[in-house]
C-alpha cells in the first residue's frame, strides 16, 4: 500500500529554542525521513560533499536560481546565501519519501506559500526564562542585544497560530519522540490514506 | 501546563479486525490512558470488581439509565446489556485524563453524536483475505455465516470516512505504536494547546 506521496514536515520556532539540536537528534534516530539538503554559496568544509551535505553553488548560480524561482525560500547569513531547492523537495516527495525541513520562522512562512499541504511543527520553549538563558548561554551578547532577541522571540511565538503542531522542547529526547509521533500519526490520517486503502481492498 | 482537558479516543473497525487484541496490548504498555469502564447487566465473573472491570447493574437499573439518557451508547449481546456511561466519560475527561473506548462501528457512530470532538481511529485489516481468515479462524461458523460477516465487514469499511485516522492492523505491535503516536501527536495539536502555552509564557 505504498503509492502514497511523501509528506513535507517543517520544524520551526523562535531563535534559541533548540531547533538544530532537536533536528540532529531526530536524524540520529530516524532513517525514514529525508533531511532537505540546502543550496549554499559558502565554501564546502572538509569532508562535506556536494549533494549530501549541501548543494554548493557559486553566487552567480544562486542568484540565477532566485531569478528562476527555483528556491522555496532563501536568506543571506554573514555574506553567504542559503536556500531550499524547490525541485529537490518536490522530487523527493513524489518518490514517496518524507522531507524534513528545519528553518527559521520567517522562512517557514515562505515555505507555506509553496507547500500549504506541509505539516508545520512549532518548537516551543519550556518557558521564557529558559529561552532567555539559552540566548544568553550562546555567547557574549550584550544586554541590549539579548533584550532585542528576546522581543524578537516573543514576536515569533505569536506566529505559532500558523502551525499545525506545537512541541515543547522541555527535554530533547521527549521533543524528538513527539516529532516522531507526529510523523507516524500524519501517515495514519484518514484523508491521506482512505482512497488507497479502499482501492487495495477492492482489488483483492 | 496541565489545565488541559483529556481527549476521548475511540478505537473501532469491522468485526474480526482485532480491536480487542490491539486494545489489550495498548493497555499493557500504557498507563496514561484511562480505559472507559462499561456498564453491564451480566453477572460479575470471579475476580471482577465493580467500578474497575465494569459497573455492574441490574436490568432495571440499566433500563432506567437508558431512559434517563445516561448512556452514550448501548447494545444487547446474548441477553445482557452493555453500555458506556456518559457521566463517567465526562468526569474523566474533565479531570484531564484521556479516555479510550474500544467499540463496534455502530456504537462509535452513536458516540460521535455526543462527542464530536473525540478522536476516531479506524482499525483496518491488512487485506480482505486476512479478515476472512480471522473471521473463519474464530470458530466453526458456516460458509453462509462467514459470507454474511464478510459482507458486513465490507459495509463497515465504507464507514471509514467518518474517522480521523486509519491504522492498519498488519501486526499488533505496530498497530499499537501507531495508536500511541496518534495519542501523543493529538496532544501537540496547535488548536488544543496554543491558548494555554501563550498564557504560560505571558504569566512569566
Give a written overview of the molecule.
The structure is a homodimer of 204-residue chains. The first copy, chain A, is an alpha/beta fold and 204 residues long. Chain A folds into two domains: 1-33 and 98-204, Rossmann fold (3-Layer(aba) Sandwich); 37-96, Guanylate Kinase phosphate binding domain (2-Layer Sandwich), CATH 3.30.63. Helix content of chain A is 45%, strand content 20%. Chain A contains eight helices and nine strands. The first copy, chain A, has helices at residues 19-29, 59-67, 86-94, 105-114, 128-137, 143-157, 172-186, 190-202; strands spanning 8-12, 34-35, 38-40, 54-56, 71-77, 80-85, 99-102, 119-124, 165-168. In chain A, the strands form two sheets. Chain A has a five-stranded parallel sheet, with helices on both faces. A four-stranded mixed sheet of chain A has the order 4-3-6-5. In chain A, a hairpin with a 2-residue loop joins strand 5 and strand 6 (80-85). In chain A, helix 1 packs across helix 7 (172-186). The mean pLDDT of chain A is 88. The A-B interface holds A 1, 121-122, 124-125, 127-129, 154, 157, 160-161, 163-168, 177-178, 180-186, 188-190, 193-194, 197-198, 200-201, 204 and B 1, 121-122, 124-125, 127-129, 154, 157, 160-161, 163-168, 177-178, 180-186, 188-190, 193-194, 197-198, 200-201, 204. Chains A, B: It catalyses: GMP + ATP = GDP + ADP. Chains A, B: GO terms for molecular function: ATP binding; GMP kinase activity.
